[in-house]
Each structure stands twice: as structure tokens, then as C-alpha cells.
Amino acid sequence: MKGLKSNLAPAFATGLLPIIINATHWTFIVAIFFWTICLMIGAWIQRPRSISRVTEASASRWQMLGFISLVFVWVGIVWLAGQPQMAAIPPVIVVFFEAAQQSEYTVTTALKQWLALSAAASIGVGIHLLIASWLLTTVIALPLVYLWLRALNLQLPAAYAFPLLALVLPANMFNKLPTSTGLAAAFFLGSLLIYHQILGWVRMAVTES
């Protein structure tokens, strides 16, 4: 990503997904290529008529250092707690990486994102437990996630991944997904919020002095 000068957060999720679902067959790579091409074509078709030049950017060294450090801390915590399946939840990692690059991060935003992620995971698992059909689960769960995000007045594409993620998770992680998501989101988003609060106090102290 640094070489491509890209801030594409879902790339992290794509890298973590085969580890979480234990993907060992080459068809996983084929599926990634296929759906990425479909996404590219869809985005190209819906492109605006006048496109402004997109400035290439990548996360700064300090942003990446903070991001990686918190991920390692979280992995250490869940490993010591004997819950290795909670080490990496792709949608949470995506939201955290995107939020870490914002100049401001408020309590309201953190709370909304936590509610969105936790509820989306619960919807995906709950619907799948009620309806043992991946197609019906997807058809029902995705609109519910959309309505929930509308109720929160929040745009959070990563939340839509949970109903689909719930379908491919190993059995030992499936039932714990809502709890794991809530705890992981609280850790990452809470840490980011604390950082911004401390940064705000420091700036205020410097201004007053």
C-alpha cells in the first residue's frame, strides 16, 4: 500500500480474511480477483461525468506505527485471554484504519461507529441462526444493516461486510462474532478517541500558554 501510495483500508481486511476463515484453496484468490473486477466495473459505470483528479496519498509513518502497535496490543490481549479467534475482525480493522486518518474524532462518531459495527455483526449472526440459508440471510440482513445505518445517520460501508462474514466464519468464531466485534471495536475506537482527547488537551494547553 505504501508503494502504491494508497489508503485503501479494505486491503487490510482482504489480507486478514484468508487467515480467519482458514482459506487454503486457490479458488479464494480467483474469487477475490473476480469480485474486485466486478466492483471496478460497477464503480466505472456509476462514475460522475466530470471527474476531478484524485490525489494519491498514503498513511503517514506515525499513523501506520500507531495502527500496527494497537493491532499487536489487541492480539496480545486476546492471546493471553485464550480467545485467538478475536485477534482480527476485518470490518473493525477497516473502520479503525479509516478513522485513524481523520484529523478529528469525536465521542459521538465513536459511539455511532461502535453501535453500527456491533449491531451489524448481531444482525448477520442472528438472521443466519434463524434462517439456515446463505442467500436468504444475505437478502434479509443487508437491508436491515442499511436501515440501521440510516437510523444512525452514518455512512459505514464496512458494516455491510458482517452479514457476509458471518456465513464464512468457522463454527468456533461464529457465535462469538457479536461479542468479539463489540469488544474489538470498543478497544480500537476507544483508544483512538482517547488519543484525540489527549491531543486536544495538549493543543489547548499550548494555545493558552
Number of domains: 1
Mean pLDDT: 81
Structural class: mainly alpha
By DSSP (H or I, 4+ residues per run), the number of helices equals: 9
Helix content: over 70%
Q: How would the global form be characterised?
A: globular
Please give the oligomerization state of what you see: single chain
Largest β-sheet summary: none
The arrangement of helices and strands along the chain is HHHHHHHHH
- How far apart are the termini? 40 Å
Strand content: under 5%
Low-confidence stretches: none
- Report the radius of gyration as a whole number of Å: 18 Å
Care to count the β-strands? Answer: 0
Describe this structure in words.
The protein is mainly alpha-helical and 209 residues long. It has one domain. It is 71% helix and 0% strand. The chain has 9 helices and no strands. The chain has helices at residues 10-20, 27-45, 61-80, 90-100, 107-130, 134-152, 161-168, 171-174, 177-208. Helix 5 packs across helix 7 (161-168). The N and C termini lie far apart (40 Å). The mean pLDDT is 81.
In short:
Helices cover 71% and strands 0% of the residues. The protein has helices spanning 10-20, 27-45, 61-80, 90-100, 107-130, 134-152, 161-168, 171-174, 177-208. Helix 1 packs antiparallel against helix 4, helix 5 packs antiparallel against helix 6 and helix 5 crosses helix 7 (161-168).
